[in-house]
Give the backbone structure.
Amino acid sequence: MSMSAARDVSGTRERLVVIGGDAAGMSAASQARRLKSPEELEIVAFERGHFTSFSACGIPYWVGGDVPDRDRLIARTAEEHRARDIDLRMRTEVIRIDVAGGRVRARDIDSGAEYWTSYDKLVIATGARPIRPDMPGADAPGVHGVQTLDDGQALIDTLTRTRGRRAVVVGAGYIGVEMAEALINRGYEVTVVNRGSEPMSTLDADMGRLVHEAMEGLGITMVNDAEVTKILTGDDGRVRAVATQDAEYPADVVVLGIGVRPETTLARQAGLPIGDHDGLLTDLAMRVRGHENIWAGGDCVEVLDLVSGRERHIALGTHANKHGQVIGTNAAGGYATFPGVVGTAVSKVCDLEIARTGLREKDARRAGLQYVTATIESTSRAGYYPDSALMTVKMLAERRTGRLLGVQIVGREGAGKRVDIAAVALTAGMTVEQMVSLDLGYAPPFSPVWDPVLVAARKAAKAVHAGTSQ
């Protein structure tokens, strides 16, 4: 009998199987272990990559040199997990879930050996996969996605070997703008090709325009309203340019920053419920709907948007870790819930900070909400204090009630994290009028007397009373 098979002999304790060894999966495994001893609960986790519990969000900063080495992005190694009595099997991919039989089939990637492992409880944390365009040249040497530490290392190796200094980033969402910054920091001439009218489609176009102008001010060439049709290669097979319908952009390296989709291939094949955004559907306890002993979390699930009341897909490590805590608690026999999100995100490109929470205008329209908007310009500190930086704040409020619907902020140092004020207000269901009276911290080095978020709230409250956008 093989070692793997021997581990599957039935015993009196329950077995928790975790598919996916990053944020959600290993947070779930770790939390379950805190609550249940190895004598009570056996935990087996499968991870197909070389690394576990790593920060994918930190990869652009490692590539750009802000983070000096890869290991700083690893929160907990495989050895550390195993030391806590979690049977973590690296370079092992789950290829099938047998829900009726209560088992998963796994394949050792290096040896090719396959085997079944039974479970009493199952956690699916398969993450998301990068969107890779189906076009000629997309798999050519010199073309990189950035999702795992292996991806980051491969890109760094290419940047180190490549003699040319021209880079094209395809896509202008969070990944795209962060990778543009990383490449600028490495001394590359950077072009960003974006199919949208402005970068950062997570913002309204008027706020995206501010990002566009700032990126060009940093020396990045922005090409908007342009769909990449093919990636051209040279005689050596390596990438040499990115082509759109109207032009070609020379490239010695190409980074794909188009975004991600939930990795739910296994779940779909197993007949588990999938939502409109291709993510697994769960209840508030992160239990897969209709399945008592299966949970799912992280980038492979859809979550409830507390503002619109609809399901959405958001791939963020903050949510994944919280999902894991909830799942681990419930899988160990406790009780916890994940109520939903308001859609908060923050990023930067060089010294420009970009933040949003809640709904954009098109989200509000899609949800059938009538709204007003207010946009203001202010500064991060008192105007007379040194190094005060400009920021623009845009706020959406429900027309009749004044309920806060969303906030977007673009500015320099001190702008981005102000979005957290709005995130708390959204979660609490506050109106913009209530926000005006918030007791926020003030001192000239940190804020004007009226914080920019409160200035926007005051203007939005006036718009609500007037019934018009301002």
